[in-house]
Design brief:
Structural class: mainly alpha
Domain Cytochrome c: 124-204, 211-292
Largest sheet: 2 strands, antiparallel
Helix content: 40-55%
Distance between the termini: 51 Å
Protein name: Cbb3-type cytochrome c oxidase subunit
CATH superfamily of the largest domain: Cytochrome c-like domain
Order of helices and strands: HEEHHHHHHEHHHHHEH
Radius of gyration: 35 Å
Organism: Pseudomarimonas salicorniae
Number of strands: 4
CATH architecture of the largest domain: Orthogonal Bundle
Number of domains: 2
InterPro entries: CcoP_N, CcoP_N_sf, Cyt_c-like_dom, Cyt_c-like_dom_sf, Cyt_c_oxidase_cbb3_su3, Cytochrome_c_Oxidase_Subunit
CATH class of the largest domain: Mainly Alpha
CATH topology of the largest domain: Cytochrome Bc1 Complex, Chain D, domain 2
Keywords: Cell inner membrane, Cell membrane, Electron transport, Heme, Hydrogen ion transport, Ion transport, Iron, Membrane, Metal-binding, Oxidoreductase, Repeat, Respiratory chain, Transmembrane, Transmembrane helix, Transport
Strand order of the largest sheet: 1-2
């Protein structure tokens, strides 16, 4: 908080307290010349008197003012003054979080360090993993882990970065950065982009113009095979997807393929180890693993839909 606003708030607080004190003093006694009654009369003889508030009532208000001053001295509430107690909402939140984290880690301790394929055979671990996934991963991959355009489906058998347990765990802990640069300038012309895109379509068995596909094959070999392989089957070490199956992260129609060639793609998954820790990452990985491997058949809602 800046100095100006701090002083402004302190002055505002002081003026409000002083105003309350003045108002109580002003209304606590009768002043000369004031009428005995307000002039209101009911039923002929019931009059409303004009008298100060009772002394005990006034004193209660003074006590609340004293309490207010003490509160503002003890707790932060007057501008940037931190208070003599040293209390902050951040410290209280951190303390509460530490208590909650200790309880959570105690509950997760039995699963610590276990491989995700082993955890996937434990229904309790899979159920915990489903909760971790729902809280941290479902925003991108969906509550059923089936993904969306630009976000991988984790419930099928296609794994861009490899399907072994360690690869899955590494994706969660360290994140992934999948970058495909634009290749329009490298290919040199719209015709070359067209031919290359049609050849990529043909790799997955889509009906295409054979002549265009044949013309695109050598272009693919010269430009794209370095990452996707000579046969287009991808390279998990680079995160280059298999182009011969029917799984398309951004769509398998020609327009989507052409956009990828011309503009490139940039997919990023953030590292989750700093966010959820290793044990919870393993549990989330176990639930994902169970979706495509079915190892936790008795896990109830933790199994694949």
């Amino acid at each position: 908080m800046g100095t100006f606003w701090s002083i402004f708030i302190i002055l505002l607080v002081v003026l409000n307290i002083a105003g309350c004190i003045w108002l109580l003093w002003w209304t606590s006694k009768r002043r000369p010349g004031e009428p005995e009654t307000t002039g209101h009369v009911w039923d002929g003889d019931i009059r409303e008197y004009n008298k100060p508030l009772p002394r005990w009532w006034i004193n209660l208000f003074y006590i609340t003012i004293v309490f207010t001053v003490g509160y503002l001295i003890w707790y932060p509430g007057a501008g940037s003054f931190a208070g003599t107690s040293g209390w902050t909402s951040a410290k209280e939140h951190a303390a509460d979080r530490a208590v909650a984290e200790a309880k959570i880690m105690a509950a997760l301790a039995p699963f610590e360090g276990q491989p995700i394929d082993v955890l996937a055979r434990n229904p309790q671990a899979v159920e915990h993993g489903r909760s971790v996934f729902a809280a941290n991963c479902a925003t991108c991959h969906g509550s059923d882990a089936r993904g969306a355009r630009g976000f991988p489906n984790l419930a099928d058998g296609s794994w861009q970065w490899g399907r072994d347990p360690q690869a899955v765990l590494t994706s969660i802990l360290d994140g992934r950065q999948a970058a495909m640069p634009p290749f329009a300038a490298v290919l040199g012309s719209d015709r070359a982009v067209l031919e290359t895109g049609v050849y990529v379509q043909s790799l997955s068995g889509q009906p295409v113009d054979p002549a265009l596909a044949a013309a695109g094959k050598p272009r693919f070999a010269n430009v794209c095979a370095a990452c996707h392989g000579a046969e287009g089957k991808g390279n998990p070490a680079l995160g280059a997807p298999d182009l011969t199956d029917d799984v398309w992260l951004y769509g398998g129609d020609f327009d989507a393929i052409r956009t990828a060639i011309v503009k490139g793609r940039a997919g990023a998954m953030p590292a989750h180890e700093p966010l959820i820790g290793e044990t919870r990452a393993r549990l989330a990985g176990a639930w994902v693993w169970s979706l495509s491997h079915g190892d936790a058949s008795t896990a109830g809602s933790g199994t694949a839909p």
